[in-house]
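Section 5: illustrative case.
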């Protein structure tokens, strides 16, 4: 005679709770791993320029990394080398020495064409002067990186609209850039950098031309992107931005330091 053993309903519910707990723990573990991922790094990298017989060192041998889930401030006065460091991380220039790695790829010897592809697919840029194309609407400006990737107009339009909504510019999609305030233009620029879903966002003095209210709005947007898993680096000379930072790197006289610039000056 066959015997059937019926499961206790309580045991069944306990099993479901246990499975759900394991799923949550697994998801949390993945989030922690993703948050700690090294997206870009420079290893003993620097940049020199020749002017006749003179060698000008824009950035001395430097090592640092950018991690997902962090907003990193790169602070330094004009001419300190901070923009050179950002340009190395952004694959805009080649290092004179040392190594630059983007998402596990050593970029030192890549061709200009391959560097352009890395910039297009893996890096979002936000500039001080916004760099929006004046004859285009906000929506069309945000669509541009996707069009360059060969995505259809229909899909590019949908993705660009979603990116503008994310930065609170959904009601300004049809506005020309000249019809937008400085803060609004910068948020459109953030949407344009965000639309390709890059792992890394590089921002060169993104708040320098903005009023106090717009500065807070833009930095909150960038901080939100970091909490959502992006690696965000902001070059600035403005120490008022430090409350938004997860990590601060100081650049002075072409050298990287973890000490505030005031302390470096005092030591010298």
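Designed sequence:
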């Amino acid at each position: 005679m066959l015997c059937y053993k019926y499961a206790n309903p309580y045991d069944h519910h306990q099993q479901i709770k246990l499975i759900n707990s394991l799923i949550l723990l697994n998801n949390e573990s993945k989030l922690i791993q993703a948050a700690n991922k090294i997206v870009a790094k420079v290893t003993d990298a620097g940049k020199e320029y020749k002017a006749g017989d003179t060698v000008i060192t824009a950035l001395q041998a430097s090592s640092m990394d950018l991690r997902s889930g962090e907003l990193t401030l790169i602070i330094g006065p004009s001419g300190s080398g901070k923009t050179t460091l950002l340009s190395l991380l952004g694959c805009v220039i080649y290092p004179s020495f040392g190594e630059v790695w983007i998402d596990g790829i050593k970029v030192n010897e890549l061709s200009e064409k391959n560097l352009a592809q890395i910039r297009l697919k893996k890096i979002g840029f936000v500039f001080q002067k916004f760099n929006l194309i004046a004859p285009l609407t906000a929506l069309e400006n945000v669509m541009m990186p996707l069009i360059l990737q060969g995505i259809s107009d229909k899909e590019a339009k949908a993705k660009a609209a979603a990116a503008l909504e994310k930065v609170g510019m959904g009601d300004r999609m049809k506005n020309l850039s000249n019809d937008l305030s400085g803060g609004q233009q910068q948020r459109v620029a953030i949407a344009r950098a965000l639309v390709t879903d890059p792992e890394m966002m590089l921002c060169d003095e993104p708040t320098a031309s903005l009023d106090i209210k717009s500065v807070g709005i833009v930095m909150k947007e960038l901080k939100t992107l970091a909490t959502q898993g992006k690696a965000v680096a902001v070059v600035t000379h403005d120490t008022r931005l430090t409350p938004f930072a997860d990590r601060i790197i100081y650049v002075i006289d072409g050298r990287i330091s973890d000490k505030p610039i005031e302390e470096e000056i005092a030591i010298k």
